[in-house]
Amino acid sequence: MKNSCISVIVAVYNVEKWLPTCINSLLEQTYTNFQLILINDGSTDNSAKICDEYSERDKRIETIHKENGGLSSARNVGIDIAKNEFLCFVDGDDFCEKNMLQTTMENFSEDIDIVAFGYYRNSKKIIAKKNKISENFNNALNLYVAGELSVSAWGKIYRKTVFKNLRYPERKLFEDMWIFPKIAEKKILILNVALYHYIFRKNSITTAKFKPEYMDFLDSLNDWNGDEKLLKIIRLRIAWNLLLFMENEHSKKENGIYTKQLVQILITEKKYFVPIKGFLNFILANLISFGFSYCIALNVRLFLRKLYK
Question: Where do the domains of the chain lie, and which CATH numbers do they carry?
Fold first, then answer.
């Protein structure tokens, strides 16, 4: 696998501030046999110009300009035009360690479909405790719950055959969650090394205020068929995080509809909050991250009162 060519797909939308760092981190890879596909998804800043400038400098780079269709649409275009046996996804505002491609390709074997690796969330390193193999969806669920396998498209190199009959759902938020069951069916090698830098920004989806569309996060679990206990834990985590998004962007009445729905999930499955110390730490960490607005305080009090009455 060491000499195989990789198609690296970078979805680009209004990331002019971070894009040069992203592209440079790829051009500086110690593994040089790759095709870099930049998909400019209708950017309104200088991202398109930056893509074109880099394309002129390096023959490995191909830039595609398209109307804005969202992250899934951009990735799907990249998959369709990728020419090689292996695929890798990078977000345009993130960057990679110089040995990301080389380290990953050196660990591929004939029976492996995907090689996953750890990452840095800003400065925090998130990795598996040791190299591990996942051979089915329940294996992957266990690793996901343990924080050792991410559902994100980035942080992995795939055989292109993984996407033979698979594409990202367009016009859906949290697109990685929707196709994870299909990804998790494959044989995955998880490396306990961090090779990717995920930049956690204040205006990203994961840090934005609550919107009704964010309920897609829960809906994405509809096709997750595996160990019921693990699925309930995941559903609880998602419900709690969505609850913490509620910061009065919409009217109190509209927020109340979603608050009741999410709190009911937490109450129904309260026995899965174990151990309690870990759960309380989880609450504390989220409150610190998202801020303790009046609305959040109300939601927390409502939940805890019903949970422990």
Answer: 6-198 (3.90.550.10), 208-308 (no CATH)
